[in-house]
Write a structure and sequence with these properties.
With about 260 residues, the chain is an alpha/beta fold. It is about 40% helix and about 15% strand. It has one domain: 3-Layer(aba) Sandwich (Rossmann fold). The chain binds adenosine-5'-triphosphate and magnesium ion.
Length: about 260
């Protein structure tokens, strides 16, 4: 049975997709079998894994609406070595169409049960909203990874996410927990980064991952080549940080 993790934060542009894609690639490098699920109509994880979102014959949209299944819709990321359940803008329609469906929060969970013995990790890249799509991610997952930038407004909004996770845990998915907060785009030269980072450790203790992901231009360049940063420039600081994060995740789930 795969361990299933959501990468979630309703704030936009905080590094969710970069984390999902590079954790997928990092885990693959250390021998784990990984499925990356793109749950965002922007399709950034799909493109970042080198898959053209405009030419998909099936995507997560069809899977959620029961018109296809994960086995038919998944594709291989050649540049990352892992499998991808891809998405494109069609998925935005699913939000509306799912409203009428039964069990609408658990469509993804049910869909993934078809393949969860084929993988060690299933990683879900969530959109920047606490929407029905994100809710599907939270219902399917064993845990949530929350990427955070260490800046003044980072903590604002975190309580909304934490409350949503608590509600889902209480009502829909008793399995769900926060696995950890991941500090991303970290700049050690900035006093503010260090202050916010220290605050996070104070509030959340060992829920804060030890690995910090630095701000690194190679990670930002990689998506335009359709290659995960971890493989685009393996010697870069960003790539190495995501490999370390993969190792930390493998360790952490041993205690789950
Ligand atoms: P959205 O909410 O729109 O889905 P997101 O949370 O998935 O965004 P990303 O797309 O991963 O965020 O990152 C936002 C931008 O920051 C991208 O241009 C990405 O390349 C860049 N970025 C992410 N992490 C880093 C990093 N560690 N160093 C430098 N740039 C980064
Ligand atoms: Mg994203």
């Amino acid at each position: 049975m795969a361990k299933i993790f959501c990468v979630a934060n309703q704030k936009g542009g905080v590094g969710k997709t970069t984390t999902a894609v590079n954790l997928a690639a990092g885990l693959t490098k250390i021998g784990q079998r990984v499925l990356l699920v793109d749950l965002d109509p922007q399709g950034n994880a799909t493109m970042g894994a080198g898959i053209n979102k405009t030419t998909l014959s099936a995507s997560i949209y069809e899977v959620l609406l029961g018109m296809s299944d994960v086995v038919s819709a998944r594709l291989k990321s050649e540049s990352g070595g892992f499998d991808v359940l891809p998405a494109n803008r069609e998925l935005a329609g699913a939000e509306v169409e799912m409203v009428q469906l039964e069990n609408r929060e658990k469509r993804l969970k049910d869909a993934l049960s078809l393949v969860d013995d084929e993988y060690d990790f299933i990683l879900i890249d969530c959109p920047p909203a606490l929407s029905i799509l994100t809710l599907n991610g939270l219902c399917a997952a064993n845990g949530v990874i929350i990427p955070m930038q260490c800046e003044y407004y980072a903590l604002e909004g975190l309580s909304d996410l934490v409350n949503t996770i608590k509600k889902v845990h209480a009502k829909l998915n008793p399995d769900l927990k926060i696995i950890g907060l991941l500090r991303v785009m970290f700049d050690p030269r900035m006093t503010l980064s260090q202050q916010v980072s220290a605050q996070l450790e104070q509030h959340f203790g060992d829920k804060v991952f030890k690995t910090m992901i630095p701000r690194n231009i190679r990670l930002a360049e990689a998506p335009s080549y359709g290659v995960p940063g971890v493989n685009f420039d393996p010697s870069s600081k960003g790539a190495q940080a995501y490999i370390s994060f993969g190792t930390e995740m493998v360790e952490r789930i041993k205690t789950m």
